[in-house]
Amino acid sequence: MGGGDMRLKYPGLVPRRVKGKPTSWRVRVDGDVNRKITLPVGPDHPDFHTHYRAARAGVKIAAPQDAAPDRGTLGWLLKSYLAHLERQVAAGQASPLTFKERRNLVAYVLSQKSEQRASKGKAYGGLPMTIPASELTAFKDRMAATPGKARNVWKLLTAAFDFGVERGHCGVNPARAVAAPAYRSQGGATPWTVKDLERFRERHQPGSTAHLALTLFMFSACRIGDACWLGRDQEERHGGTLWLAWQPRKKGSRHVRIPVLAPLERAIRAQTVVGPAYLLTAHGKPFASPEALRNKMKQWVLEAGLPADRSSHGIRKAAGHLLALHGATQYEIMAVHGHANAATSQVYTETVERMRLGEMAVSKLAGMEW
Question: Where is the Tyr recombinase domain (predicted)?
């Protein structure tokens, strides 16, 4: 069917051709020669006629991939769960970072293709939400090379199906019927060494935002999600001493209240531009998101000649180790780091305690004749 025939059969239909790109089709709205609507599908699509008629009437129909998934499908369940999670974020009951991560994972899950005989090759998005255990096992096997991602996908599926069961959308949680992907922690972020800290400070002098960032992370042990907004509004005075008090935004964290030690107070007062947060961009505004500050931190790290894996969380871990080395108990570290679970802070004290035990054990060999 040629372009000329198309115009005769479909008044107002205008092809738009750009070299190197597929032809797109626009429709002039009937009665309004100045308004055109771009169709989401071409003439070869079975729904083309429906889209064309709607556009002639001045209505743009969503593309097939943008249409709401059918109720009862896995796509419908996961998108319903995302809407619920977004409401939780707005109410302060869930982390925006969790929502962002799971939204990306939903797109990944729904793009998967079924391996079951009856639905082989079909996208997960259109499958019934009660996905069989054998399908989930096959999906898990496909993610064997990325165990961290697989673990996060399982957390998403488990939470989404729990959401569905609690609201009567489905009777069982198939993600709980299959063993979660095996995952062995690699230790997380690399703790900064004393030499790392020295090299960073040599490159980024007092008065710079980079120097303040390092000092803030080191002497408050705050997370990067809190460093974006921590500032003078969180300052308190107790007995003439400056303190910082804040509620970490990570879900489940406890309130933190700590004194501001001299190095951090000097770094704060060295700033020539004062804003709503301690850490400001070159334009004098707070960083738009933790990701924006994370990217800037990586730039500062590379400028200091440090390995790219040195992150703000590695400074937090270094602070935990130094606190333990200087005799802090796991409960004292909990108060600084905002941990709700003692086992999380025990990681630092346990390591130092083993070092001391090793020192004591080896000292017993000092008097041996060799």
Answer: 187-362
Q: Is the pLDDT of residue 78 over 70?
A: yes
Contact 286, 275 (CB under 8 A): yes
Q: Is the pLDDT of residue 341 over 60?
A: no
Asked if pLDDT for residue 314 goes beyond 70, the answer is: yes
Using DSSP, state whether 41 is helix, strand or coil: coil
Tokens of 23: 């032809």
Residues 6+ apart with CB under 8 A from 180: 151, 154, 158
- What's the CA gap between 176 and 165, in Å, rounded? 12
What are the chain's domains? 3-66 (no CATH), 74-176 (1.10.150), 194-359 (1.10.443.10)
Q: Is the pLDDT of residue 228 over 90?
A: yes
Residue 7 is predicted with a pLDDT of: 42
Size of the chain, expressed as the number of residues it contains: 370
Angle separating helix axes 342-363 and 330-337, nearest 10 degrees: 140
Q: Average pLDDT, stretch 259-268?
A: 87
Residue listed under structure tokens 């959308």: 169
- CA dist 370 and 368 (Å) reads 6
Under DSSP, is residue 278 helix (H, G, I), strand (E, B) or coil? coil
**CA–CA separation, 7 vs 4, rounded Å?**
5
pLDDT at 329: 57
Burial 106-117 (b: 16+ CB within 10 A, else e): beebbebebeee
